[in-house]
Amino acid sequence: MIKVGIVGGTGYTGVELLRLLASHDEAQVVAITSRGENGRRVDNLFPNLRGYYDLAFSDPDIETLSACDVVFFATPHNVAMRMAPELLAAGCRVIDLSADYRLRDHERWSQWYGEPHASPETLAEAVYGLPEFNRHEVAKARLVACPGCYPTAIQLGFMPLLKAGLVDADHLIASAASAVSGAGRQAKIDNLLPEVSDSFKAYGVSGHRHLPELEQGLGDIAGAPVHMTFVPHMLPMIRGIHATLFARLSEPTTDVQALFEDFYANEPFVDVLPAGQYPQTRTVRGANRCQIAVEVPQGRDTVVVMATEDNLVKGASGQAIQNMNILFGLPETLGLVQLGLLP
Amino acid sequence: MIKVGIVGGTGYTGVELLRLLASHDEAQVVAITSRGENGRRVDNLFPNLRGYYDLAFSDPDIETLSACDVVFFATPHNVAMRMAPELLAAGCRVIDLSADYRLRDHERWSQWYGEPHASPETLAEAVYGLPEFNRHEVAKARLVACPGCYPTAIQLGFMPLLKAGLVDADHLIASAASAVSGAGRQAKIDNLLPEVSDSFKAYGVSGHRHLPELEQGLGDIAGAPVHMTFVPHMLPMIRGIHATLFARLSEPTTDVQALFEDFYANEPFVDVLPAGQYPQTRTVRGANRCQIAVEVPQGRDTVVVMATEDNLVKGASGQAIQNMNILFGLPETLGLVQLGLLP
Amino acid sequence: MIKVGIVGGTGYTGVELLRLLASHDEAQVVAITSRGENGRRVDNLFPNLRGYYDLAFSDPDIETLSACDVVFFATPHNVAMRMAPELLAAGCRVIDLSADYRLRDHERWSQWYGEPHASPETLAEAVYGLPEFNRHEVAKARLVACPGCYPTAIQLGFMPLLKAGLVDADHLIASAASAVSGAGRQAKIDNLLPEVSDSFKAYGVSGHRHLPELEQGLGDIAGAPVHMTFVPHMLPMIRGIHATLFARLSEPTTDVQALFEDFYANEPFVDVLPAGQYPQTRTVRGANRCQIAVEVPQGRDTVVVMATEDNLVKGASGQAIQNMNILFGLPETLGLVQLGLLP
Amino acid sequence: MIKVGIVGGTGYTGVELLRLLASHDEAQVVAITSRGENGRRVDNLFPNLRGYYDLAFSDPDIETLSACDVVFFATPHNVAMRMAPELLAAGCRVIDLSADYRLRDHERWSQWYGEPHASPETLAEAVYGLPEFNRHEVAKARLVACPGCYPTAIQLGFMPLLKAGLVDADHLIASAASAVSGAGRQAKIDNLLPEVSDSFKAYGVSGHRHLPELEQGLGDIAGAPVHMTFVPHMLPMIRGIHATLFARLSEPTTDVQALFEDFYANEPFVDVLPAGQYPQTRTVRGANRCQIAVEVPQGRDTVVVMATEDNLVKGASGQAIQNMNILFGLPETLGLVQLGLLP
Predict the structure, then answer these.
(1) Which CATH architecture has domain B150-310?
(2) Between B and C, how many CB-CB pairs are < 8 A?
(3) What is the ipTM for the molecules in this complex?
(4) Any idea what DSSP says for residue C228?
């Protein structure tokens, strides 16, 4: 059994790791940390876990965590980059769900996050954990930087087109929308139900922190620099991301449906829908799955891709476990066969 | 492997049976019927099932269904009572999620449902499937009438008090609230999102069809006639039932917390919360579980019980599978270990 | 024109006062305070007000406020009781939407609010502002304590029965539910959309701060002590309160429908629905109106009353303006004719 | 007083006309039709109207309607085009909220709506009622075709850019999202709360009926043909439209903020937000207002416009009344000063 530690267990990606790992046959959570809830039983804070975990939150402590085979950081940015080096030195593997190791360039990181990177020397060995792009790299890693929730859906959506060199990579457009859980379990007026329910808005239009990650990742996929206009929106709902992607086709006559179906034919967690059917966030609710559709409206020269995922699963904790499975040589789907909860 | 047939597969309890049975090790769905969607793949209608079922809807046909070991009726009332006798004669077991076999008295049934009962002679062998009350009866049954969604939560909530003879059974009060999926997947203006979202209302106050079922079931539990005032409400949400129950205590000094904890100590699917913690529908979302709290406000003589469940799981399809497990001598929890999806 | 000051303008009752007063012909908001948002334009924080107010938040300052004819406190408790005496001394009228002056007995107040009352000597002149019960007292007041949101609906629902002496006042039951805006515009994890959306729960069952207010107010109505079991619930929605009330009838044969219709025949803001029609919170969304239905299920001896209101309007800011109209001898309905926003 | 008739009063645009006209000083609703609800009081179906209307639905009858000064069609398409000619002949003015008269070319109409146009000869005198574009034409009209909900927001969002010739009009992109009330008050499984709540999806990507209207309208604005990729989405909420618009700037250095502010400086119902502030659908809930923001992310060459409106007000009934005011020479804002309901 893989001994698992989780840093930052009181957030949404933390409780989601617990939910998913409860049915994972080869992993067991042995430590879960929280400064604020130190000593409180996890099933007292999250009663959905009652009967599944006999565990309490503890203070984040390098010694305890070092005894784990793998440590997940389910924290806001600025935590993993302080603790990871020591854990790696102690022989742990680290899977970071936060933004700390997503950008290769620490100056770019500083520019977007407004503070110096705390362990720039560790950045070099961080592997970006988008398995559908680079699972072979992940398999050899000690430190995995899980992609952001938006970047997962957007990269999976653009990947077949960019790999095939079919679109103008200089003017990619992503109009994406996330449920509120993407903003984390933090006390903010902006995310109170009366502020965001029954409403919709764009945010971060002038520059969202996922933009540099997107341009880096899509550039890696394309093998050349790309430029994107990225407009995120806030959805009045709990879970789910939907990305609507636009690009100019260089060869409008391409059968994009076949392209996508072939590209993802062997991927267990990417599901290209039949022509004419569009994804809904609800059909992947709670599942580690990205569902995708592609369309060329009116047969013109603009291709539209729609990609959905559960931001807490394929967009975060599920993908993190997928990376863990790869790291430890387990079947990639182990513990990740939950079906979407519909309705 | 138990061969399973499902009649009425396009409704919410139908798709929920499919979701849950996909991870059941001893059962396989071999037939699922729908007149309206005959020939359509189930995963085309319900894309959360893609990759889990290679099955299409078929016309309801006694011959096909007869080849099953067990047939679930996930239909509105008035279907099971027409088909069950023939299936039973063919050796099938029948688990009815509808109201057709819930009332022992066919005249009372007719009075509340506004038409004659189609197979009153079969009523005698129907067993009411509330395992926490009568699992030994269920184990011997061929025909199980699964309780309604409200009656499940309300009976589980009142059971310890009634069994202990602690409350005035002549004036029970249930103020309960259900999510909209309880109204079924049927085209009705009343259940459109703009009609029920961001709103709350009572309905059926003068007499809801679950009232006779409740008074019959609670009477069986109490061993004497009971009378209840039952006010159901419609919640602006997808899944979940919450029942708030009130009764006059005959012995106000009783330790009701201990009473409930002891009563349900060995029940896998009924979870009495620690004193002071109240249930939320979201902590049982997608789980076959009823979470209960009990309180005597201000130490007076009125006891308040709060009971929550997912109306589609413990209130319907999960409980139906729990009954199937009992019928076939399997562990009662088989295939029913999904954790609640929180948030 | 009445010069209006508002203390605590960044909360939900504050912005609702602004919305409603924007179309009031005889009142003008001249000062609105907020320590945190001092200097910020109100229409920057609340863009629905753009074009209607040329006003910025200022620090709460007795001098400025003293120049107003009336000052509304749209604050949490513990603010009005510190500032009201000075404003009253300066000749202002004070309308307090918070809990500070609702209980006549300052010791009882301290017991429920966990601190001493700051101006117990002022309590004696506070008038409880439920116009349908005591508008003549309000007309003569200098200091009005507006009822809580739950107490407004619950008292209006029970009033006809208590005045007629028709129910057992020793065992009143109120199962009520409020939208999340009732919890205020404050940064709390518990009220984030992912915590409360698509879910339902009871809270404060062992004792909610509205209980002593309810027992005091209902006792005044009944002319004798009453006892209530009060269970509030949290609804996954923005606005609205629904109270479901239960009581034992002493004379079950009474025509309660006629009783309610007669009782409220001349009330502009209480609307008794025709027999058989039940209220929904959405039909009073944004309107200063309480809609009520009454039913005696199965013709037994328990009466059920359903009462709805918008917690921010008839449950707070609308009623406060109604009180202002009475205080200043204006028509009670002035500025309060907004229709409910349906859907 | 203008005598108003409404055809199709049971839908969402019908009840919204009634809500808004209740506070219109110069208009009075004298007839409202519905085949299905003939004889039922409007306030029985829509209890938010209790006390404001003493009116019942009647059968649509040319004679009664002909006695009106103006008749609104709040119907699905295919009704107005059959009745309008006769009403016009009788001297009525007609304001059509449906799609029947929006396309000038009846063959194009047939192609998108799948049936012949019933009164192609009347199309020539229909005026497209987007007042901010052509209020002078509207003032002279007898028959006004109100824009669709999406086209209103999208045209207002693109108008300043197209008028200034600043964008590549051959590759406009609109990623827009509508609340469910946009789909009408019709019994459809697809719009049940459990189908659309807590979820998000695109629809009509291959071709939505608003596309030809958009290309016609935007072409009129630009004075040359335009091409648009239009992706509508369904939001899990009651009211509101948000359009996110993308276009390639021909002169990236333009001060688009100033352009928009100047363009709409004198428009009462179009509100350009200050730089850096983005619109939310909730701030225009219930108000006849379009709020707009514009941004050029990262200073590159793609401009992003965000435009919000309440789909039932500025996107339908409010704009229809605005057109009525223009038709009858009244102040354009009469009866349309409702503030947005926030929260």
Answers:
(1) 2-Layer Sandwich (3.30)
(2) 151
(3) 0.97
(4) E
